[in-house]
Amino acid sequence: PRMIKKNDALSVQMLRSIVQIIFLILILTIGIQFMQYTAWLDSGGTGEAPYRPPGASGFLPIASLMSLSMFLQTGAVHPVHPAGLFLFIAFVLMSWFAGKSFCSWVCPFGFLSESIESVHRKLFKRVISLPRWLDYPLRSLKYLLLGFFFVAVISMGVLELQSYLNSPYHAVADIKMYRFFAHITSFALYVTLGLFFLSFLIPYFWCRYLCPYGALLGFIGLFSPNKIRRNEDSCIDCSKCAKICPARILVDQVKTVRSDECTSCFQCVDICPVKDTLQVVNIATKRPIRTRALGITLVVTFLLCVGIAHMTGNWHSSLSPEQTLDLYPGIDIYLHTGAY
Questions:
Q1: Phi, psi at residue 114, to the nearest 5°?
Q2: How many angstroms separate the CA atoms of 92 and 152, rounded?
Q3: Cα 99 to chain centroid, rounded
């Protein structure tokens, strides 16, 4: 007989929401700290230097990939933005534990996209999606972008990597990123609003079609040993899992979910009305894993990577506020190469 599933006191969706909100608060805090830091730079260094948050390096994925390539070739952590390397490793490991989980547990754009989709569902009573003949070619765009950046980075030798990582451009890259959003141009604003509008009409437009970071983590997620599996014998074919899936994966038609689009949000597992019909299973041991336990593992993985960065002295930048102040006047003219 089929058993109706009972919800846990602390569901994985509640845990995921808590984690998303915490990361959103952290990101907003980083934004405020950067506002104070750039105001100090604009003042010419009047008064004591505010805190420059290392966590902003997590928004420099290409530089972090270059730092990883440098580390693999030399064994040394580049000291300018070391936090970016450890955050990059954390997000990769999270996606290996649970495919592309960074997107549905940490990423602020993923959180925003999820919120937009919620409004979309309430207005349209369903999720509007593109036809397959258009969806598949568009999904390849993010892999083309990923391929361009990945090939460019892995083809670089140590001297070429050092040329960029030791450049003034890289030294102030996090500040340039903040200034881009704080002083956004009309063109960039129109593009942002256009993407927002497209994401409202077609949920997860940016994530599904354009984000190269998501493409990388989705590819890594394909090799995760933990997969969502459907028990075909107990499945009642209600299709609730497929209807709620933000990645529009036909969960009700496969035995094992093997998709680069799966973000491990586990909404399909939670909504399944029949006990043990949808489960996360380790394909090596064949044993089921509680989604809540896997969610906690993701959080611990992140904290462990950040902790290692702190304990090894690889969290804060080696650049002093005075060095950054000297570099700041040329922030708009620096090239990608040339030592400072």
A1: -65, -40
A2: 19
A3: 12
CB-CB contact of 296 with 143 (8 Å): no
Give the side-chain half-sphere CA count within 13 A for 2. 14
pTM across the whole model: 0.92
**Angle 11-229-303 (CA atoms, 0-180°, nearest 5)?**
50
Q: What per-residue confidence (pLDDT) applies to 128?
A: 82
CA distances from 251 to 256, 259, 273 (A): 8, 10, 14
pLDDT, one tens digit per residue, over 10-61 is 589 999 999 999 999 999 999 999 999 999 999 999 999 999 999 999 999 9
Say if residue 232 is exposed, middle or buried (CB neighbours under 10 Å; 0-12, 13-18, 19+). exposed
- Give the residue from 42, 39, 16 showing the smallest Cα distance to 270: 16
278 DSSP assignment: E
Compute CA distances 93 → 20, 21, 149, 254, 303, whole Å. Answer: 18, 21, 20, 26, 12
| Cα 231 to Cα 250: distance, rounded to the nearest angstrom | 14
Residue 222: CB atoms within 10 A of its CB come to 15
Cβ atoms of 221 and 260 closer than 8 Å: yes
Q: What are 274's strand-pairing partners? A: 4
| Distance from C-alpha of 259 to C-alpha of 24, rounded to nearest angstrom | 27
Sign for the CA dihedral angle at 313, 315, 317, 320 comes to: negative
CA dist., res. 249 & res. 255, Å (int): 12
